[in-house]
Amino acid sequence: MIYSPLTTSDLANRKAALVVGHPGHELRLHGWLEIARPHVFVLTDGSGGAAQSRLNCSEQVLREANCEPGSIFGVFTDKQIYELIINSRFDPFIALVTTLADRLRELDVDYVVGDACEGYNPSHDLCRIVLGAAVQRLRSQGMPLLNFSFPLHSRPDECDLPTDYGSVRLDLTNDQFERKMAAAWGYTPLVPEVEESQRLIGLDAFRVEWLRPTSTKAGFENLAAWRPYYETYGEQQVASGRYARVLRYREHFRPLADALWEHATSQSGTGASTRSRSLRKSAVA
Ligand SMILES: [Zn+2]
Question: Is the N or the C terminus of the chain less surrounded, counting Cβ atoms within 10 Å?
């Protein structure tokens, strides 16, 4: 049995940060959000194809759960991320790793939680590799923070790592679950997704929340053997004339991952002197 350094009973008194690709992901961990009260960092504004930011909806969720928005909050659109990756423009993401690591150090967090790398959406996978690189950088500087992920595409109530291996399982009380569902149904732009989850897996699946311990290299290597869904989706978009080019793992995403890992491991000693900058909308992209 492997000792778990974080248990469910620790959640209320350890400092946490949540780092997600899109506003609204925090709803999946709403029970944990209320207990742990993390600083919440969001990479994109969630506009997607709708051209409408949903940051204000997330700000309301965070306010009601007594959580603080982080200094990185909606700095990209998905379109910008797609274009930067496909054109091999990695500098904004390297700067993002430095800024995130600096801020996590300032906050002195004990653990971070972020999107899992599922090969489903490039912004989710980007979030995972940015967070992994930031954690790697901080660990190299002697900060032993723990690194967890949670799925956006897979079922929320399933986890292939048992608690003996460091996973943290949270079973929501009825009150916690009701507040979670009220927040989800009140998040207007995501109501179609809530309805789809209700139809596909049933909302009771969201009574359980898992934090899964994750390697800092997650997303840097584990997609090499299979074809991510976003490539298939991109091909469909190109065929219909909506995208000009397909974002591919080997050609585009993997070189970005390599650049971030190189940054995380080669400059680990210099971060302490780098001042954190506040990144708000369009400050980076
Ligand atoms: Zn998302």
Answer: N
Query: What stretches of the chain show up as alpha helix (H) in DSSP?
Result: 30-36, 55-64, 78-86, 91-107, 122-140, 174-185, 191-200, 229-239, 254-266
Residue 72, Cα to own-chain centre: how many angstroms? 12
Give the tens place of pLDDT for each residue, 69-107: 999 999 999 999 999 999 999 999 999 999 999 999 999
Specify burial of residue 11 (Cβ count, 10 A radius: 0-12, 13-18, 19+): buried
Q: How many CB atoms neighbour CB 191 within 10 A?
A: 12
| The domain made up of 10-265 is a member of CATH 3.40.50 | yes
Distance 26 CA to ligand 1 centre (A): 10
How far is the C-alpha of 222 from the C-alpha of 225, rounded, in Å?
A: 7
Cα angle, residue 272 at apex, residues 150 and 144 outer, rounded to 5°: 40
Residue with tokens 């009601």: 64
3-state class of 127 per DSSP?
helix
- 51 CA to centre of ligand 1 in angstroms: 15
Query: Quick check: pTM over 0.85?
Result: yes
Closest CA to 43 of 64, 25, 61: 25
Task: Please tell me the distance between residue 141's alpha carbon and the centre of ligand 1 in angstroms.
Answer: 31
Say if CB 282 and CB 75 are below 8 A apart. yes
Residue 14 reports pLDDT greater than 90: yes
Give the pLDDT of residue 131: 98
Mean pLDDT of the chain: 89
Helix, strand, or coil (residue 209): strand
Distance 242 CA to ligand 1 centre (A): 20
